[in-house]
Amino acid sequence: MLAIGVFQILLEQPLLSWNPRGKYYSVIIKILLATLLVVYTGGIESSYYLIYFLPVVTAGMFFDAMGTLVWTALTSAAYCSLLIPALRVYELSPEGSTELAIRNLFFFLAAMVVNRPASENRRQGERYRQLAEELAETNRQLKQAQEEARRSERLAALGQLTAGLAHEIRNPLAVIKGSAETLTLRLQSSDPLTTEVAGYISSEVNRLNAIVTRFLNFARPLKLERRRAQIPPILDRALKVAHDRWPEAKVEVAQQYSKGLPELNIDPDLCEQAFTNLVLNAYEAMEEDGGKLTVRIKPANSDGGSGVEIAIEDTGPGIPSDHCEQIFNPFFTTKKEGVGLGLSIVSKIVDDHRGWIRMSSKPGQGTCFRVYLPSE
User: Fold this and answer.
1) Whose CA, among 48, 86, 99, 139, lies 20 to 30 Å from 344?
2) How far apart are CA 345 and CA 342, in angstroms?
């Protein structure tokens, strides 16, 4: 009795926690302990036969209806097995047979009475677990949607500001450039130093004008010229652009394209611009030490619709965690050169295609950009 009590109180829960088969072991151990107790206290005639209700009730709590019946049958068989040595001394009377049958019947009755509410509790617990997982997934998607909405709002506000500033800057730039060219023509032969300075002014104005043009391209609403197209050829062209720019780069490119990719209703030129930007960023991240660029394309579903997911993963230094939320913000950059519009433009192109772009990065291990584009 003491061993059964200690096992029930102290050992059962660790056994169930540590071993996935703990519930089976728990019932088996209780059957063995109950049998030892009954054998020690008189065998089949022992008044302690009621201890067999313990493994029966345990089975009813842990298993379904069929499993409960099986374990109850084993418990009943263990109890009835005590009849074998008793028959060598005593004769089984009709009254004794009836009493034995009633006791075994009560084992099954108790098992099923316990099993029904226990099974319902397990089903209810499973439903709650599924609901909790669905709620967690919904919260995750809601958080992503909120982040994308905030990013879109920032893009819209900054786009309007950029457009106004770019137009205001472009006009004086045109005047400065025209004045510098006039000086160059008039002083070309008389004052070489002034001619050289005027040339510097003209070249710097051209550089500023290029930056202003990028600002305007970012701020200007995109006009998608959609047509049916496959993603692999577009991505191949983006990879070629990066390779041509850094032909000596120690970058190994691995292309993993799934078969049977659907055609998408997209603007191929804008998509190529977006992929080129992502691939160039990956090359730049691995420019010094080299690395591996993995490009994957596979069919995907999002928000109930079908499309294609493109993953561009590098083995560069990664992006610090405190920069991850700002990486798509306009004018945010970690590069020595550049104005920080590349990923903002990529995000804008993807958003206008009603897709999404997500980034994951581990410092020291690399960065992966995942882009989803819907079929329609």
Assistant:
1) 139
2) 5
Q: Can you tell me the distance from the alpha carbon of 154 to that of 329, in angstroms, rounded to the nearest whole number?
A: 8
Question: How far apart (Å, rounded) are the C-alpha atoms in residues 4 and 325?
Answer: 57
Which distant-in-sequence residues (6+ apart) come within 8 Å of 195 by Cβ?
Answer: 183, 184, 187, 188
Predicted structure pTM score? 0.51
Distance of CA 241 to the CA centre of its chain: 31
223 alpha carbon, distance to own chain's centre: 32
Q: How many alpha carbons lie under 13 Å from residue 154 in its C-beta half-sphere?
A: 18
Residues 279, 283, 289: CA angle, nearest 5 degrees: 155
Q: What is the DSSP string of 322-351?
A: GGGGGTTSTT---SSSS-S-HHHHHHHHHH
227-374: what fold?
Heat Shock Protein 90 (3.30.565)
291's tokens: 């690395």
**DSSP symbols for 44-108:** GG-GGGGGGHHHHHHHHHHS-HHHHHHHHHHHHHHHHTTHHHHHTTS---HHHHHHHHHHHHHHH
| Domain 144-219 is found in CATH 1.20.120 | no
Q: Which residue ranges make up each domain of the chain?
A: 2-136, 144-219, 227-374
Rounded Cα distance between 58 and 219, Å, is 69
Number of Cβ atoms within 10 Å of the Cβ of 239 = 20
Distance CA 95, CA 17 (A): 45
Query: What six digits make up the tokens of 313?
Result: 């993963």
Q: Find out whether 4 and 33 touch, Cβ atoms under 8 Å.
A: yes
Tens of pLDDT, residues 302-351: 776 789 999 999 988 888 777 766 677 666 666 655 556 678 888 888 88
Average pLDDT, the chain: 81
Give tens-digit pLDDT for 200-252: 787 788 777 777 776 666 666 667 888 999 999 999 999 999 888 888 888 89
- CA torsion through residues 283, 285, 287, 290, sign: negative
Residues in the chain: 376
